[in-house]
Amino acid sequence: xxxxxxxxxxxxxxxxxxxxxxxxxxxxxxxxxxxxxxxxxxxxxxxxxxxxxxxxxxxxxxxxxxxxxxxxxxxxxxxxxxxxxxxxxxxxxxxxxxxxxxxxxxxxxxxxxxxxxxxxxxxxxxxxxxxxxxxxxxxxxxxxxxxxxxxxxxxxxxxxxxxxxxxxxxxxxxxxxxxxxxxxxxxxxxxxxxxxxxxxxxxxxxxxxxxxxxxxxxxxxxxxxxxxxxxxxxxxxxxxxxxxxxxxxxxxxxxxxxxxxxxxxxxxxxxxxxxxxxxxxxxxxxxxxxxxxxxxxxxxxxxxxxxxxxxxxxxxxxxxxxxxxxxxxxxxxxxxxxxxxxxxxxxxxxxxxxxxxxxxxxxxxxxxxxxxxxxxxxxxxxxxxxxxxxxxxxxxxxxxxxxxxxxxxxxxxxxxxxxxxxxxxxxxxxxxxxxxxxxxxxxxxxxxxxxxxxxxxxxxxxxxxxxxxxxxxxxxxxxxxxxxxxxxxxxxxxxxxxxxxxxxxxxxxxxxxxxxxxxxxxxxxxxxxxxxxxxxxxxxxxxxxxxxxxxxxxxxxxxxxxxxxxxxxxxxxxxxxxxxxxxxxxxxxxxxxxxxxxxxxxxxxxxxxxxxxxxxxxxxxxxxxxxxxxxxxxxxxxxxxxxxxxxxxxxxxxxxxxxxxxxxxxxxxxxxxxxxxxxxxxxxxxxxxxxxxxxxxxxxxxxxxxxxxxxxxxxxxxxxxxxxxxxxxxxxxxxxxxxxxxxxxxxxxxxxxxxxxxxxxxxxxxxxxxxxxxxxxxxxxxxxxxxxxxxxxxxxxxxxxxxxxxxxxxxxxxxxxxxxxxxxxxxxxxxxxxxxxxxxxxxxxxxxxxxxxxxxxxxxxxxxxxxxxxxxxx
Length: 874
Hints:
Blueprint: H1 9-13, H2 21-31, E1 52-54, H3 57-63, E2 64-66, H4 74-78, E3 83-91, E4 97-104, H5 110-117, E5 121-122, E6 125-127, E7 130-142, E8 155-156, E9 162-163, H6 173-182, H7 186-200, E10 220-227, H8 230-246, H9 248-255, H10 257-277, E11 280-289, E12 302-309, H11 314-326, E13 333-336, H12 338-343, E14 353-357, E15 361-365, H13 368-379, H14 389-398, E16 402-409, H15 410-415, H16 422-430, E17 435-445, E18 448-457, E19 486-491, H17 495-509, H18 515-524, H19 528-532, E20 536-546, E21 553-560, H20 563-576, E22 581-586, E23 589-596, E24 603-610, E25 613-617, H21 620-632, H22 640-643, E26 659-663, H23 665-676, H24 678-687, E27 694-701, E28 704-709, H25 711-759, H26 769-772, H27 792-795, E29 805-807, E30 810-819, E31 822-832, E32 840-844, E33 851-854, H28 864-868, E34 871-872
Parallel strand pairs: 1-7, 13-14
Antiparallel strand pairs: 2-5, 3-4, 3-7, 6-7, 8-9, 10-11, 10-16, 11-12, 12-15, 14-15, 16-17, 17-18, 18-28, 19-20, 19-26, 20-21, 21-25, 22-23, 23-24, 24-25, 26-27, 27-28, 29-30, 30-31, 31-32, 32-33, 33-34
Helix pairs in contact: 7-8, 7-24, 8-9, 8-10, 23-24, 23-25
């Protein structure tokens, strides 16, 4: 087993694509937008000067001196009609509109566009000093804002009108409970799958050197190297498929509804990634350089992808894969060999990825100039990058074996900042102008998997960059509970000096920035620097035990140099704020308690000084408990789960650090899930018991800041947090998307009814969705019985008056109120198929106002009066 341990197929591969080198290359190949080849226009001799000419929209826009915005037609706005109106206009020699004709546009938007454009005024178009009449096209946009059902639906328009409605947040408890009830035992099955993935997957061996890195150009400023995870991904897929066969619960969930389609896509993508991985070597490198690729192009990082090729047939495989994913469109990836590269034209469609397949190397770029430059260096045997300081730093990252390396040459980037600019001056003041390299590694340290990050400087840290103190003991952790959800400690250099640095930085750009602070100090007759910050040691710890209202539990512990003088300053500040603190003594400790009234409940804050520490907490009991933990040795600092998770190795400084972050991922995940589904939270606690904490340590060294974490732990914790956030949000997003689609369908039906009543006034409104749809035998010839104003999804022959037709998790129906042949009113209604696809029903009548009602799905359509009683969307 190697040192990299992804937590699961679902999150270790899907949520962490950056850790999967093959997936990264596949994504690069498949995600480039499809673009068509564009040929350069032929150059023709200039024509004779006519008395009337045609100019482009861009030229005309430059001559426009007065533009009148159209008024959004209220009826079109209510019917949610949007789009563009294109007019051909004749501009006279005085710049006024002499004539205009319609090119395209919705009939309900055209009159407003014409009325506005008639009032536009241009500068005269001059040719050889003579004004000419010119033809051009004008595009007028009528755009309604896109509904968002995460926070509500809001509508607006480019014409200055507004409309739409707000929607309440959708609680997911019902749908989550239904999922758990429908598939009992699902989460334990997930836990079993997770365990098998962690135990049984064999990962790539660590790499002690890179054969690809020396090939990079000297101008490289960005570097990322990944192992070939193809075999590991294939093993994970095999384990997943085995579990699906053995677990009826997991199989039922995977094969039902949306999970069925998504699951098939996941399996197919992993299989293609595995097939690609079999052609490639042990490492893939993605880099960027600051060279200029094409003549005249702007300086930006030039993408370069390198991978060793270990068997023939890669070119044919890539061509088949890109053609398959492109479908009928032009492929977004161009695959070449050396002969084809020599004959290739220099111009490429924007953002097209070019892959050059050599017998032993795969090279990818976004422009042919970069590719040809690389080949010239390769043919010359150039290895200049390995000799650069950045290249030597990367070689050092491979020492001892590494899995993933990512780095940035900050020195080269900072050299591009103009020395006389405000940005450069701010970097100098803060000490970050001396940054050298940022390097992140995932490797084995002392036999344990670890992630390491190093921000190095060209010289000793100064300014803001030096605020993080050198590693030292963290006595404040002795007050922290081992049951804390999260806790963090930082050691800062002298807080009084930090206060002075902040003062200097802010007043450098604004001399009055600290004027109010000086006035306050004068009124209080104290100095914040000398009377407050000078009495703090720089050690700060924050702890969160619970965030559940109204009983949130927390602690803040501050290191103190002079408790008595600090208490005097605090008393002065509290008196100024007219806040009184009650005092009580217990065991020689004086407790100070503040009670601050609020609109909902009184907020209590207590504090006490103990052995040069100031302990502040959400209650006196929390302060007392912190002291008990310290005296008994039962605090987080002595807990086995923290000690076992601390970084190891020669540079770990033992238990000392400059900063430390601790998180219980299980508690964080359960806290998030508890709000959405208590059942899921309980099941999560049972299936992930024993999950180690996430611990990150930071070290402030003379010319570097380093961060080290036991990456397997951190990654697993991050997955649990992501899962806890993602599962409820995905369910919310699914319901929100269904409801947004339902509202759009209601508005489409409104528009269709309006168009129908205009086309067939003797009929009035349509009696059902089928009347608005296409003819049953095919074809698009409209008629009063089949108007062809909506598609067959809802306008099929079975969608007659009063019947339900389904689309995107909702059922829809249209009924009309008719007198003999003419229908004067209608109701269109949409209701969820089940409570897991939506929590509200929607309706609308001829006034085009969409209304909603919370509750279970409807069993029958509603009447006009009932629809009018629902709440309008705002």
